[in-house]
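Technical note accompanying the year-one report. For the benefit of new consortium partners, we illustrate the data format agreed upon in the data management plan: each record pairs a sequence with a structure-token string. No post-processing was applied to the example shown here.
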Amino acid sequence: MDISNASRFLQSYNRIESQLKLLHGAKAAMNFTDLVKKCSDQDITVRRYAAELIDYGKLRNAIVHRTSGSADETVIAVPCDDVVQNMEYIEALLCCPPRLIDAIKVKKIASVFADKPVLSAVEAFRENKQKTLIVYDHGTMIGVINCYGLYAEIERRILDNSDLHAFFTQTECRAIVHSSDMEKYCILSQDTTVFDVFVAFENRKDLVAVIVTENGVFGEKVLSIVTPSDFPRINRFLETYNAKPF
């Protein structure tokens, strides 16, 4: 009997079990099903594949047999190709999850210089059709200008009967950058996984976007900005891993 599929399945199973134990800090003797259920509360990937993992845990027990009093296990069943491949896909997602930067690549970021007039921000919004501009001061990110925040600035000046022409042409962009605006953004590093991004939006309903920098540090050059509009593209990327779409 060709047991290569059984060997591949068991290798993936053992790696997944080890990863789950690391994730949960579980005791060596914890039941696999219980381990999956515990980790479902901690990891979005485990949660998405919990049903399959629990089924595969039962399948693992059907594949091997241990004689009473013996430490050796004997293969008594062989899983089909589809099951083995799916098990290996789940292993890849858990043990080597795809990075966000690989899914969306580095893309053009709409930005403006802090010492430029507000009109340049308006022009950048028009040209790039994005809702967020990164503001740089001599190469350092100092914050963002959100289009809705700009609307609020305009409204306030209209209500105050301020000179809008002067506002757009003489006020520097740095003057409308507010630290409070960053509260609706999350900064993550380029090594962030695609699942970390989904978790960020899941945990914070008011999140406007995830800003990606090299080390996830405020002030660094921005490599990408991820919004829910990017989810379809990320899901298409995940299809190469046979992963469930979000």
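Partners are asked to follow this layout when depositing records. The longest helix spans residues 4-24.
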